[in-house]
Amino acid sequence: MSFTPDSNRITIAAKFFFEGDHKFFIQGVTYGPFRPGADNVHLTSPEQARKDFTQIAAAGFNLLRLYHSPPRWFVDLAWEFRLRIITTIPWPLRGLFLNNQETKRQIRENARIAAAAHAGHPAIFGFYVDNEMQPDLVRWYGASRVESFLDSLVTIVKKEDPGALTSYANFPPTEYLTPRCVDFYSYNVYLEDTHTFRSYLSRLQNIVGEKPLVFGEFGLDTIRNGEQKQANLLSAHYQEVFQGGAAGTMIFSFTDDWFTGGHQITNWSFGIVDSERKPKLAYEVLAQKTIGPEGRVCDTFPLETMPRVSVVVCSYNGAKTLRGCLEALGKLKYPDYEVILVDDGSKDDTQNIVKDFPNVINIKQPNMGLSVARNIGAQASTGSIIAYTDSDCMPDSDWLYYLIQPLVTGSYAAVGGPNISPPATDWIQAAVAAAPGSPSHVLLSDVEAEHVPGCNMAFHRWALDMIGGFDPIYRKAGDDVDVCWRLMQLNQKIGFSPSAVVWHHRRFTVGAYFNQQKGYGEAESMLRYKHLNYFDDSGSARWKGTIYGAPLLDSVINESVIYRGVFGMGFFQSIYRRPEPMWTAIVGSLQWNGLALFILLLSTQFEFLRVVPLVMFAITLFAAWSYMLRARIEPQYDTLRARLLLLYLALAQPVARAWARYFTWISGKRTPDAVASSREEEEHEETTLLGSGKLSFWGEKGKGRELLLQQIIDLLNKEGWRYELDNGWSDWDLEIFGSRWWHVRIRTLSEHYPEEKRLTCVLNLLRPNASSVLASVMGTGAMITLGLAFHLPWWLTLSSIMTGLSYWTYRGLALRLRLADLIEAAAHATQMTQMDGKKAWK
User: Fold this and answer.
1) The domain 11-300 belongs to what CATH superfamily?
2) How far apart are alpha carbons 243 and 681 in whole angstroms?
3) pLDDT digit string (tens) for 716-738?
4) Any idea where the domains of the chain sit in the sequence?
5) What percent of the chain has pLDDT over 90?
6) What element of type H or E holds 709?
7) In this structure, which CATH number among 3.30.1330.10, 3.90.550.10, 1.10.260.40, 3.40.50.11270 belongs to the domain 309-544?
8) Burial (CB count within 10 angstroms: exposed 0-12, middle 13-18, buried 19+), residue 580
9) Does the N-terminal peptide bond of residue 445 adopt cis geometry, omega within 30 degrees of 0?
10) Which residue from 398, 444, 453, 448 is spatially nearest to 421, judged by alpha carbons?
C-alpha cells in the first residue's frame, strides 16, 4: 500500500487528539494476543483479521490496542479499514532491570525496533513504552528513576518515528508515575461502580494536567457477570469517559479468544464478541454509543438539559487576536448560544474586525474597565447561563459542552476551566509562555475550585444577580478572584471542568509580560482592601486550595509523598503534595531583595555581615534557576537563549509584581492629607490624645453600635476617607486607611440595659502598615550606618533615631485623635452621649 509518510497522523492539541481539523476520540478495543502460529506472531491469520476488522469498524471503533509488535501486512490491513494501532512494546522479564545493563539494552532495542518497523505509517497511532509496572519494583527504585527510564524509551521512539504518539500504560497501583516526555497519559482502570469511576476520572484529569487522558483498558467478564451487566457497565463507562472530558477509552477486549502466559484462557470472557466472533449484547450497545468521525460528543452524549448560553467577550485594543477568538466561538459544538462582544473603548481595528461577524452582538462603550464591560455584557445577554472569555483566547470546539456540564449536573453557582498557551511563533513567546505568574485555577478538590480564571468561566444568571455582578473597581484584573470569593462567602460552590479548554495567548513580548504582571500586582492590592482575610501582611494571597502553576521552589524544597499502602501493597497508591513552607514564598520577593540590599549597606561597616547578602542573592538565583530547569518550553524553541530569558523572567517577576502591589497599596488606598489633617466640622465632644483609643457612648431607645457604625460610615463617605468594611471574617468593623504609614481599625461593642438602653464601647486601634515598619527599620539601620561611617557620637545617632521614631509615633496618635473626633461627631449626630472613659471601661 502506498502512502505519504506521516500523512493522516494523529496530532495533539491540549487535552484532545485531532485527525486533521476534527477531534479524534479514541474508541478502541484490545486485540489479542492470540495463540501464535508458525511465524510466532501473536495475531490471527490475514483472513480472520479482515473479518474481525470488518466487524470492529462496523461498530464505530477506530483503534486497536496490541500487546506485540505487528507485521507489515497487519498494519496495512488495519489502515484499509481506517483503524489506528497502538502497540505495547514488549519487555523481557524485568526483575531488577535498572541493575542489569543487558536488560536495559534489550528493552531499548525493542523500543527502537518497534518504532522503526512502520515509521511514518498512518495506521500507527503510537506506542506504550511499558504496561503496568509492578508497584513494589517502582517502590524499590523510586518513582523518579523509573520515570527517567520510561522517558528515555520515549526519546528512542521519537527518534525513529517522530509522528508516533507515546505513553506509559499505567494503572492505579502506580498512579503517581507521570513520565514527562510522554504525549498523553493512559490508565488501565477496572472500576465497576459508576460514581467511583467518575470521581477517579476527575482525579486523573488533574494528575495529567494539560495532556490528554486515555483509559487503556476497561472491561467486565461475562462468565461471572452475564452479558446484560457487561452491556450496562460498558455503556455507562462510555458516557462517563466522554462526558468527563477524557480523550478516549479502549475496551478489554474485542473477543473472548485470548492467549497469554503460554496458555489459552478459558475461565475469563471479557470480549464484546465471543470466541466465534458472535456479538454479545455489549457490542450492539456500544455500536450505538460511538462518536462519529467529526467528533461531536455533544450529539452522542447530550446533557440532561442544554440551556441557552450567552458568551461574553470583553476587549480593549484586542484586535491582534480578536479574529481568531470570534472564529473559534463560531465553531462551538453547542446547540444554543449567542456571542456578545463588549468593546471597552478600543482605539485599534476592533470595530472593523467585528463587521465580518454579523451574528456577533456588538456593544461599543467608552473605556470603563473590565468589570463594567463584563456587567454590560451580562445585561445584554438572554441566556440563563453567562460564560466569559477574553479576546486573546480561542476556545476549544467543545468548550461550552464541558463548561456547562457541571452547572447542569452539579450544585455549582459557577464553573471554570484551564487556559493553555497556544503554540508559540518564536523563542521569546515560548519563554514568556513558560514564565511564572500566569493566571491559573486554584482547586479545593478534584472538582471544586477556589478560583477560576476570568478568561474561562461561566455563571448561572442568578449567581451573578446574587452578588450584584462584577465590582467596577477592578478595571484590568482581579475581578474573577473577587467574584469567586464573594460567591464562596455566600456558601456557593465553584466547579472546575478540566476539559473546558481555552487557548490563551499569554503575552507576545517581554514588555507586555511585565505590564501584565504589574496589572496583577495592582489587582492584588485592590483585592486586599476588600478581602483582608485572604492576605498576609506582605500582601500575598493565602489560598486554601492548590495552585496549578508551581512556585519557584516547589518540588525542590517541598517534596511530595506517596501513599503506597502497608508494605507497598495498596491498590490505589496516590501522590500528595505537602503544604508549601511559608518561607519559600519569601525567597526572591521584593522584601527579600530589599532586606539583602539593606544588609549589604550595613556590611560596609560590619564586615561579619558581608557574607549574608551574598548568600541571600545566591538563594534567589537558585530559586530562579530551579524554575528555569523544570519549566517546559516548546521543544522547537527550547534553546539556551530561551532558557536564559526564562531565568531572567523568574528572577524579575516576583519583584515587578510585588512592586506594583506595594505601590498600589501605599498610594491607592490612602485618605488625602487634607482630609486627615483637617478639623472635624460636625459638632462633637473633645477628647484627649491619650484617651482617643477607647471611647464609650450612652444611647437611649435601642441606639447602639449598629446605628453608630452607620453614622460613622456616612461621615467617612461625606469627608472623603478611604476605608474598608468587615467582610465577615475580621475582628474589626472598619479599617480606615488614614495615611501613608498608619491605618486605624474600629471595633465596637454594645452592652444592653433595661428599657432598651445601650452602652456602646469603641476601640480606636492604631496599626502601622508593612511599609511603615519597613521604613522604620531601614531608617534606623541607615542612621546607625551613617553614624558609624562618619564617626558621629553615639548619643547623636541615638537621639536622631528617637526623634524620627517619636515623630512617626506622634503622627499615628494624631491620626487616631482625628478619627476619635469623627466618631464623637457621629455619636452626637445620633443623639448618643459620650461617657467618661475611665468609668465606662472599668
Assistant:
1) Glycosidases (3.20.20.80)
2) 65
3) 888 888 888 887 777 888 888 88
4) 11-300, 309-544, 673-840
5) 46
6) helix 705-719
7) 3.90.550.10
8) middle
9) no
10) 453
CA gap 391, 505 in Å, rounded? 9
Kindly state the average pLDDT of the residues 567-592: 62
Phi, psi of 539 (to 5 degrees): 95, 5
Q: Can you give the pTM of this predicted structure? A: 0.80
Alpha-carbon radius of gyration of the chain: 33
CB 208 within 8 A of CB 216: no
Q: Out of 400-414, 530-544, 723-737, which region has the weakest mean confidence (pLDDT)?
A: 530-544
Q: What is the Cα–Cα distance from 71 to 265, expressed in whole angstroms?
A: 24
**Among 163-177, 266-280, 302-316, 430-444, which stretch is predicted with the lowest mean pLDDT?**
430-444
Cα gap 733→744, rounded to integer Å: 11
Model pLDDT, residue 38 = 64
Nearby residues of 516 by Cβ (< 8 Å), 6 or more positions away: 437, 506, 507
85 or 737: which leads in pLDDT: 85
- The residue that leads in pLDDT, 700 or 260, is 700
DSSP labels, 149-187: HHHHHHHHHHHH-TT-EEEEEE-GGGTT---SS-SSEEE
Q: How many CA atoms lie within 13 A of 728 on its CB side?
A: 6
The alpha-helical segments, DSSP class H, found in 250-388 are: 281-287, 297-300, 319-329, 350-354, 370-380
Calculate the CA dihedral of residues 420, 422, 427, 432 and round it to 10 degrees. Answer: -30
Length of the chain: 842
620 or 169, which is more confident: 169
Instruction: Return left, alpha or beta for 369; rule: phi > 0 is left, psi -120 to 50 is alpha, else beta.
Output: left
User: For residue 396, which of 513, 249, 295 has the smallest C-alpha distance?
Assistant: 295
Expressed in percent and rounded to 5, the helix, strand and coil fractions of the chain are 45, 20, 40
